[in-house]
Design a protein that fits this description.
Blueprint: H1 3-109, H2 127-136, H3 141-148, H4 152-162
Helix pairs in contact: 1-2, 2-3, 2-4, 3-4
Length: 163
Amino acid sequence: MDFSYYVFAFFIFVLAAIIVILTKKIKGADSKDNKVIYEKEKKLFKLYQNLEEMILVAEEFIEEAHKEIAADKSNIHSMLEKAEDLYRQAQNEIDNYIIQENKEEKKTTQGDKKKTEPVKNKNNLSKSVQVRLLAKEGQNIEQISKELSMSQGEVALIIGLDR
């Protein structure tokens, strides 16, 4: 056997060894990659579980908030109804007061045009009631604001609320 035969056998042996080494490295890298992928999947699953828990907590919070809002809404409606009732009562009292004043004025004057005292001195009424009374007596915004020492904007707002 000749020397070339041994060289060829050695060459084949080296090739086989390289193939075995590369195969082991590839399998080792795959197992490392698999471990890394497995750990990433595990972390992702934990994140997903945490996200689900957070969503459940948020849903519970939203339900509680809805209940509180519904309770507040019903309270606001009842307070609004009470305020509307009080407003109607005040309007009725003002109307009754004006009617009574007109009757008294007709009895006392009977044709005389006697100037009545300003509304602000009568019964210590609030300014908003005084504004309404003067407006119902026919005074304009400018006259009312001068008589009650209020701005025309305030007077206009109070009168506008009645409409």
